[in-house]
Amino acid sequence: MLPDLPTLLLVRLGVDALIAVAFWGQMRRYPGIGGPGWWSLGAVLSIVGSLLMMARIGGGNAFAAGLAGVMLFGSHACAWIGLRAYLRMTMPWRTLTALLALQLVLQVGLAMRGDDPSGHQMVYALTMVVLAALVLYDLLHERTPGLAPEYRALALLTAFELALLLAVSGWVVFASRALDSVAAGFILVFLMTKFLRVLLFSALVSLRLRQEADQARLAMAERAADSRALVSNLGAGVVVFEADQHIVSANRAARRFFGWPGDSDDPGSLPQIPDWQLLGENGARMPRHEIPFERVLASGQPVSDVVAGIRTGDTGELRWALCNAYPENDAIGGLRHVVFTFVDITALRQMQQQQRALEQQLAQSQKMEALGTLAGGVAHDFNNILAAILGNADLARQDLAPSNPARQSLHEISSAARRGRELVRQILAFSRQQPLARTPVCPDTIVTETCSLLRTAIGSNVQLVKEVAPNGHAILADPTRLGQVLLNLGTNAVHALQGRAGRIGFRIDAVGLDDPALPPALQEPCRRGGAGAVRIVVSDDGCGMNDATRARIFEPFFTTKGVGQGTGLGLPMVLGIVEAHGGAITVDSRLGEGTTFTLYFPAITDKPPAPETAPEVVFSDGGTMAPIPSDEPSPPAATISVESPAMSEESSAAPAHILYLDDDDTLVFLVRRLLERRGYKVTAVCDQQEAIDAVRAQPQGFQLLMTDYNMPGMSGIDVAREVLSINPALPVAVASGYISDELQAEAAAVGVTEVVFKTDAVEAFCEVVARLVSPPRPA
């Protein structure tokens, strides 16, 4: 026994109201799912259609039946639109509009012709067949991999509804009557399918929520994996601690930094650190309240940019890191972990230390350069004074009889002046303003000569050892200056023994281009030469030096000896000569353990000529040591013999006319007297323009122009240029205490005959003048 039609319509109204409310709530809760809103609207349209059907049963006109059909069709259309929105398909607005327009036109048309229930039912059933077919088509063409059971069940239900609608259409067509007699049965069946559809739609919502949850979990897992991979492969170290300093995890950079074994993420493979022992930037142990981990625990705030030193590995190697730490809290604000991040700045710290060392070296170099410039200027003026003293003393001694007691005083004056001149030479060597006669030489020859000289001055209890590597390279050097360097270092070694038995060693070997011992400053010159470097090592096992003394040994006038025992210019002179040769020097010394000086010189491939005589090695009394004591008295200084050279082959020839120019009137007076005693005619002036005017007045009247180089206003080169423009055949000599390659090149370009080193200009002056005035005849 079926319930009557009004009762079923009332039940349908209640069901549609529940459906509208349920799907409205789902739409509000899950706005990302497109279906529930349309399904709720479909339930509302179904309510309106049911009310119109009830009005038609209660005696309403035919328009109520037509509108009821339109509303019920709209309800099913909203269910279809909601399904497509759920499946994220495009909306079929044109198809839907066409079906609604067709439904409306037909229903209104039938209503206008009169009451025709079977016609209304036929229009409704046919349009619903089309709509059901469209729904079934969408379900069967769903592209979801592994179609869920909910989709298959909804497809079966839609197919059943399609069959039911076809049956209704057949009943109306073939039975030729309306469904009023069986309407309750049909409504009951459609009500049951509506229940099933609502359940399936709700299941689809749940399916979508499960799918989105699975996708969210998968995305979270992927993000977590990406985060772990990112943290694991970061160049910065990351260590996660619990509040009790228990290590939870550490990435690869942290493991490498601390020297922890393995590359696993297993926390059990990580060692535990019961006590952080960090060092501050000053190298002292960092107080506990300054440790980043402790600061985060105490304040709960992040800590950033803390430079700390950490002892790592089994060897306790000190490494430096720029550290940061921050708290990781749980949902209620409690501390879960402390994340400790850091960047390895060990290489940066080493570079900073090297930079500071280089800055100190630069400051020392600039100080030495300033002192060298000052010393060179003082030496230049002092050399002129000494030249005047020596020259006038020799002239005065020549004017005295051999038995005159004043000759001994003049001899002492000359000896003192010569010692002063030797000091000037050391100053010039230190300031690198002394010319070098560099030729290819074998260092072992000079070392052998130095050892021979030292052997005569040291006791038998001192072992003198020489080690020379076979097939050694030659170097480009001034043998005399290199001998000064080695003898100075050897003498230092003798004094470092302080009279005790010991060992002094000289060693020569080669240093290859790839040898790490090669100083950086020599790498490029040696690479250009292609022959590496020659290393000369002078060592002793004497008293050694502390750090403070070692830092100052190359400062001029610094000495550890008593007053009168050393000038403090020996090692500065060594440094100046070595660097003037393009070399480098290093010092290794410890107090009570001896000292080692290592000299590096760029090697050359040229073979030096066989030496006819051993190079002259000058004993220097400067440096950090005093001269080696000797029981033999110093030989008296040799006097300058005065012999008048033949001015020409005929004694009646006119004397050569010499023009001498110097801004120092003392030297002008001295040189005029020296040359006039040799029989020359001398015109000596102190003004450059006066010398130029003299040549212009007598272009052929002079056989030689001797001029100083360093003069105010016009230099000697400028004067030579002016004079040679007047008389290109006039020999010109320029005297200077600073002879460089640039000066020689400039002099040669002007046409200067010879550049004379002014330190030796006075004693060898007459010989230079004789050679330039009367050049040797060709054979």
From TrEMBL:
InterPro entries reported for this sequence? CheY-like_superfamily, HATPase_C_sf, HATPase_dom, His_kinase_dom, HisK_dim/P_dom, HisK_dim/P_sf, PAS, PAS-assoc_C
Q: Which Pfam families match?
A: HATPase_c, HisKA, PAS_4, Response_reg
Ranges annotated as spanning the membrane: 6-25, 37-57, 63-83, 95-112, 124-141, 153-174, 186-207
One GO MF term: ATP binding
- Which residues are in the PAC domain? 304-357
Q: Where in this protein does the record say 4-aspartylphosphate is found?
A: D708
According to the lineage, what is the superkingdom? Bacteria
Keywords in alphabetical order, please.
ATP-binding, Kinase, Membrane, Nucleotide-binding, Phosphoprotein, Transferase, Transmembrane, Transmembrane helix, Two-component regulatory system
Q: Can you name this protein?
A: histidine kinase
Organism lineage string: Bacteria, Pseudomonadati, Pseudomonadota, Betaproteobacteria, Burkholderiales
